[in-house]
Amino acid sequence: MTSLESGTTQGQGNKKEDPWGDLNERVKRLERLEVFSFDELQKLQQGLETIQEALLVLKLNNQVIRQIREHYQCLMTQYRLPALKEIKKGCEDSFLRYCRHSLNIEANIDAHQAQLNALLLLYNTILQYKTIQINKIYAESAHLSTRNMENIASKTKQETSSMHIITFVTLIFLPGTFMASFFQSGILEWPQVNAKAPWRLNKEIFSLFFGLSATITIVTIVVWMIILFMLRRPHSERAKHAS
């Protein structure tokens, strides 16, 4: 029992240093619990039943001895029949010796009962220690699983945010790239520009390009936001119902 208590103290000290515990320490605690095999638990249970039976037998024996002593005390003290006077005088010494012997036996039984109660408490403490350690390991494992799930959810949220940023940037530049490729495809004919002439901005063509690109970009972003809102809405409704 001392080794079990020292193991518990060491486990608590390591836990203060590292809230999540070390893997080697967890393995050691699991190895310590191997002493509680199924056969060992059966032996402990049989020991508990034997102790309880012994306590019951001692209690009944103590009651019987006390009742017999009280019965003879009643005969010697309460009954005043003339026929019993001679019997009382002849049996007085024997009765006193019997009372002393009976009291010694009762005290001995009480001592055995105290020892068995202490042993019963020890057995119950061992079983409770095993149950507490197993529950602690399961609770810590569940807590670690929860933390891992939270970390995975946080990483997924960050990756989702990054994907949203990439998608948003793509939606901004993709319509302009599409319109630039469309204007350069040769489908539309533009007036020839003299290579020797100084560079100048064709405001009409630029306005057309900018207007079409901006319109398509805005429409695309609005459609994307609507679709994103529709996809998120069922999740938010399920979260509200769950809470």
What's the number of extended β-strand segments? 0
Distance between the termini: 46 Å
Helical/strand content category: mainly alpha
Count of helical regions: 5
The main sheet comes to:
none
Question: Cα-atom Rg, whole angstroms?
Answer: 46 Å
Mean pLDDT: 75
Strand content: under 5%
Low-confidence stretches: 1-20
> What letter string, H or E per element, gives the SSE order?
HHHHH
What is the 3D form? rod-shaped
What helical percentage do the residues reach?
over 70%
Report a brief summary of the structure.
Residues 1-21 are annotated as: Disordered. This protein is mostly helical.
Could you explain how this protein is built, in words?
It contains five helices and no strands. Helix 3 packs antiparallel against helix 4 (83-184) and helix 4 runs antiparallel to helix 5 (203-242). Helices cover 86% and strands 0% of the residues. With 243 residues, it is mainly α.
Helices and strands in order, then pairings?
Elements: H1 2-17, H2 23-32, H3 38-77, H4 83-184, H5 203-242
